[in-house]
Specification:
Blueprint (H helix, E strand, L loop, with lengths): L1 H16 L7 H32 L3 H22 L3 H23 L14 H14 L3 H19 L12 H45 L3 E10 L4 E12 L3 E3 L1 H10 L3 H21 L7 E5 L2 H4 L4 H11 L7 E5 L1 H6 L2 H12 L3 E7 L6 H6 L4 E4 L2 H8 L1 H16 L3 E5 L4 H9 L4 E3 L7 E2 H14 L1
Parallel strand pairs: 2-4, 4-5, 5-6, 6-7, 7-8, 8-9
Antiparallel strand pairs: 1-2, 1-9, 1-10, 2-3
Helix pairs in contact: 1-2, 2-3, 2-5, 2-7, 3-4, 4-5, 4-6, 5-6, 5-7, 11-13, 15-16
The chain binds ligand C2E and magnesium ion (2 copies).
One magnesium ion binds next to loops.
């Protein structure tokens, strides 16, 4: 265990000092797990020390309690090593709450000479919980944080103990008090340092994303979309960030962060302009002039004042047939469900722009969206693809979704098709449009254009 801990500390130090080693989201997890492991490790050493001490003093009740909390801490460490990070942290937080409270109530009784110290462990648990909450919010997490803070305030402000308390001797509290205070302070320092590292990573990521825009590090990749006779009908443009040091950063590592930091409207604007330029070029070539181009629009970009007018202005400026542009929105936008959002959609739709509901079936899919919104396409999420082949219930669900879509005169596209079996299954279920690795991964525009003769041969 000590070996892993040392390795972790070396990793923190190196990621801190060698700035070029950053890799965004995973680092955030890494900082948190290291802080959690470090705190639990310190707790374990502390418990072990007192277990041996109280065993020599033959104070068996405290020894049993120490052993119990040591075992729980070991289990939480095991959970973190198994990547069950939230569960591990919640459990260690539980130890950091219950252990000090029991000590404050029964053993660590304040006297005139010696104040109580066990409650000093409570803030360490609360900060750790807060770090975990930022990563994985949960109700239980909030409850544990609030309880830790409330207990800290209570035990700091009062010398309350229960009548059946068995106060530790002054002798033990004399030395133990100093040790406990040092250990608790160290744990608080580790948690605060971790928080500061996280903020630093976030700040550097915001800067890097801004730089990416100005230094033209973003690219659009294009993934083919085909119909049931495998004719190319269009493409989805997918954003890629080509970082000069780290290469291509996975979308899951930077798009959610860009959304959190409010950068998506700016990035989305760039995507929109690029898409219009591509459509303008496609319009000039015989083999591409009928293709549609889908782009993903994030919720805060869509909700920008004048978003809809900007789209129409761009289409006019680049002289593009509006029906060639498909705006993919997710149910997050649909959930906003306010009048202005429906007005924006109606405005775009009246001007001929197509709207598509992306990742259909994954969120709070409500059929009322389809009734209220001028959607022309639904995209069935790829999580359904293999499930529909393996499991009868998923198959029935997908068949139902496809039927409803078709009955409402919507185009139904399924994404994430990787095998001919999946293609045939969805084609037989009535799906009309398809996208997936079977016909090509997202690729640079130049490669997409090179692939066109291959698709034309199939017609
Ligand atoms: P999405 O719009 O649902 O895009 C489909 C994702 O599935 C893409 O991941 C694509 O590479 C992947 N994919 C396509 N076919 C297959 C397949 O056969 N098998 C598997 N396993 N995966 C397949 P990507 O490019 O990483 O994008 C992920 C998400 O990031 C997108 O999901 C979209 O929500 C978001 N995104 C991408 N580009 C943009 C953008 O320009 N703006 C906004 N707001 N979001 C974007
Ligand atoms: Mg999409
Ligand atoms: Mg999708």
């Amino acid at each position: 265990m000590a070996k892993y801990f040392t390795v972790d500390l070396v990793m923190v130090a190196s990621s801190y000092f060698k700035k070029q080693k950053k890799n965004y989201h995973p680092v955030k997890d890494q900082q948190l797990t290291i802080a959690a492991k470090a705190n639990i490790f310190i707790c374990l050493i502390f418990c072990l020390f007192w277990t041996i001490y109280f065993a020599f003093a033959q104070m068996w009740l405290i020894v049993y309690m120490d052993v119990f909390f040591t075992l729980v801490s070991l289990f939480s460490l095991f959970l973190i090593y198994k990547r069950r990070i939230s569960a591990g942290i919640l459990l260690s937080q539980f130890v950091l709450l219950v252990f000090p409270v029991i000590f404050c109530l029964f053993l660590d009784v304040a006297t005139i000479d010696r104040p109580r110290v066990a409650h000093l462990f409570l803030p360490a648990g609360a900060i750790l919980g807060y770090l975990n909450y930022r990563r994985d919010p949960s109700f239980l997490q909030v409850v544990l944080i609030l309880l830790s803070i409330a207990c800290f305030i209570f035990f700091s402000g009062s010398s309350f103990t229960i009548d059946s308390a068995i106060p530790l001797s002054e002798n033990i509290r004399d030395h133990g008090g100093w040790i406990a205070t040092c250990v608790a302070t160290l744990m608080i320092c580790i948690s605060i340092y971790t928080m500061q590292l996280e903020i630093q990573i976030e700040n550097s990521m915001v800067q890097d994303l801004r730089l990416a825009l100005s230094k033209k590090q973003f690219e659009l990749f294009f993934q083919p979309q085909i119909n049931s006779s495998e004719t190319l009908i269009g493409a989805e443009a997918l954003l890629r960030w080509h970082h000069p040091d780290l290469g291509y950063i996975p979308t899951k590592d930077f798009i959610p962060a860009a959304e959190t930091f409010g950068l998506m409207p700016e990035i989305g604007e760039w995507v929109l302009v690029q898409a219009c330029k591509v459509l303008q070029d496609w319009n000039k070539q015989e083999e591409t002039k009928d293709l549609t181009l889908s782009i993903n629009i994030s919720a805060d970009h869509f909700m920008q004042p004048n978003f809809e007018q900007t789209v129409i202005d761009l289409l006019q400026r680049y002289d593009i047939n509006p029906s060639r542009l498909i705006l993919e929105i997710t149910e997050t936008i649909a959930l906003i469900n306010c009048v202005s959002m429906i007005e924006k959609m109606n405005f775009l739709s009246k001007h001929g722009v197509q709207l598509s509901l992306d990742d259909f079936g994954t969120g709070y899919s409500s059929l009322s969206y389809l009734q209220k919104m001028p959607i022309s396409q639904i995209k069935i999420d790829r999580s359904f693809v293999q499930a529909a082949l393996d499991d009868k219930r998923s198959n029935k669900l997908v068949t139902g979704i496809i039927k409803i879509g078709l009955d409402l005169n919507l185009r139904v596209l399924v994404e994430g098709i990787e095998t001919p079996e999946q293609f045939n299954a969805f084609k037989n279920n009535g799906c009309t449009e398809f996208q997936g690795y079977l016909w090509g991964c997202p690729m640079p525009l130049i490669d997409f254009i090179k692939q066109l003769p291959h698709f034309n041969k199939k017609v």
